[in-house]
Amino acid sequence: MKTECIVLNRERNVSLTAYLLDVGGEFRYVNKRPAVFVIPGGGYQFCSDREADPVAMAFLQAGYDAFVLRYSVGQNAKWPTPLADYEEAMQYILDRADEWHIYRDKIAVIGFSAGGHLAAACATMAEHRPAAAILGYPVIREDTTHECEKTAPGIVSHVNEKTCPCFLFASRTDDVVPIQNTIDMINALNAYQISFECHIYAYGPHGFSTADSSVQPAHTKMPARISDWVKDSICWLKDVMGDYSQDGLGDPVCKAKVTADSDAWLSLDCSIGRLFGNPEALRILAPVILEMRRKIKPFAPGMTFEDMMQTLGKMTLRNLLIERQIGVELFDELEKKLQAVPNI
Amino acid sequence: MKTECIVLNRERNVSLTAYLLDVGGEFRYVNKRPAVFVIPGGGYQFCSDREADPVAMAFLQAGYDAFVLRYSVGQNAKWPTPLADYEEAMQYILDRADEWHIYRDKIAVIGFSAGGHLAAACATMAEHRPAAAILGYPVIREDTTHECEKTAPGIVSHVNEKTCPCFLFASRTDDVVPIQNTIDMINALNAYQISFECHIYAYGPHGFSTADSSVQPAHTKMPARISDWVKDSICWLKDVMGDYSQDGLGDPVCKAKVTADSDAWLSLDCSIGRLFGNPEALRILAPVILEMRRKIKPFAPGMTFEDMMQTLGKMTLRNLLIERQIGVELFDELEKKLQAVPNI
Amino acid sequence: MKTECIVLNRERNVSLTAYLLDVGGEFRYVNKRPAVFVIPGGGYQFCSDREADPVAMAFLQAGYDAFVLRYSVGQNAKWPTPLADYEEAMQYILDRADEWHIYRDKIAVIGFSAGGHLAAACATMAEHRPAAAILGYPVIREDTTHECEKTAPGIVSHVNEKTCPCFLFASRTDDVVPIQNTIDMINALNAYQISFECHIYAYGPHGFSTADSSVQPAHTKMPARISDWVKDSICWLKDVMGDYSQDGLGDPVCKAKVTADSDAWLSLDCSIGRLFGNPEALRILAPVILEMRRKIKPFAPGMTFEDMMQTLGKMTLRNLLIERQIGVELFDELEKKLQAVPNI
Amino acid sequence: MKTECIVLNRERNVSLTAYLLDVGGEFRYVNKRPAVFVIPGGGYQFCSDREADPVAMAFLQAGYDAFVLRYSVGQNAKWPTPLADYEEAMQYILDRADEWHIYRDKIAVIGFSAGGHLAAACATMAEHRPAAAILGYPVIREDTTHECEKTAPGIVSHVNEKTCPCFLFASRTDDVVPIQNTIDMINALNAYQISFECHIYAYGPHGFSTADSSVQPAHTKMPARISDWVKDSICWLKDVMGDYSQDGLGDPVCKAKVTADSDAWLSLDCSIGRLFGNPEALRILAPVILEMRRKIKPFAPGMTFEDMMQTLGKMTLRNLLIERQIGVELFDELEKKLQAVPNI
Question: Quick one: average pLDDT of D197-201?
Answer without folding.
Answer: 98
